[in-house]
Design brief:
Blueprint: H1 2-21, H2 27-31, H3 36-75, H4 87-100, H5 109-128, H6 137-161, H7 164-174, H8 186-198, H9 202-209, H10 212-217, H11 222-244, H12 250-260, H13 266-290, H14 299-317
Helix pairs in contact: 1-3, 1-13, 3-11, 3-12, 3-13, 4-5, 4-6, 4-11, 5-6, 5-11, 8-11, 12-13, 12-14, 13-14
Amino acid sequence: MLGRWILLVGLLLLSLFLALSYGSVPVLPLLQHPDPSQQQLGWTILWQLRLPRLVHVAVVGASLALSGGLLQVLLRNPLADPYILGVSGGASCAALLALSLGWQWSSGHVELAAMTGALVAMAAVLLLCRGASGWQPARLLLTGAALSSVWSALITLLLTLSADGQTRGLLFWLMGDFDEPGYPVLLPIVLVISLLLLWPQRQALNLLAQGELLATTLGVAVKQLSWLLYLTASLLVAAAVTSAGGIGFIGLITPHLMRLLGWRDHRILLPALLPAGAILLLWADTIARTAWAPQQLPIGAITALLGAPFFLLLLRRS
């Protein structure tokens, strides 16, 4: 097990190094240039532009991977991912509405609108999935899917009604956007709080993953644990979407990949999802910045192109 952790941490450090080195402007040649002004330019790009972006990418990847793993346990469904319950749709719809009204990212109003939309979507799912039979993962899943369709329709209407000059920027944000300068603030706080809440429940997650009846028989408070998983995963998704837009497949394939490598115990899987999700999104971001340089590709398109074939391969193998 120690060897796996060493390998995982080594891959994370290697991914960070490669992501720092490569992009639309390669940094290493600038740092080795004999002209001091070119060296200064290289250090400026490294410390003020690239490193904050890559920290942002890593935190978003870790958050999406953790939320995907939690939802797969909660719903007992291997196809569950961070966007299946409509939280991201609510955040995206509110953010697009704010951008269409002319609000600017620099003011912080768009982030506030996105977080408000995510919280509204969470509340809508909670209210609509309640039934006479109490908590049921199937009802939660169907409610989230139905609301996702509603949010998708509203997003389509907003894109259709937006000005021509805004459409490209809105679409780019919907596919993931890390162009905002500076380090993320809200998302790391949400991630740390989520880990502190979940860590005492790591053994209960193993039991819940094997079935609600078995978990109840062995003394797990299934209802309370289920609400904790839903709220934690939803807040992680809300903060990630607010921070970087919609990025698919990271939360879906990372838990599958880690289980395929033998990380099935949630006492080990939960912390392992963080560097694994960061590694996958760092590689996707590096490809997005270098494949068509100097033009940057939407990172969500890269994750979909890489993640969909991988997931289909997993389905075929199983």
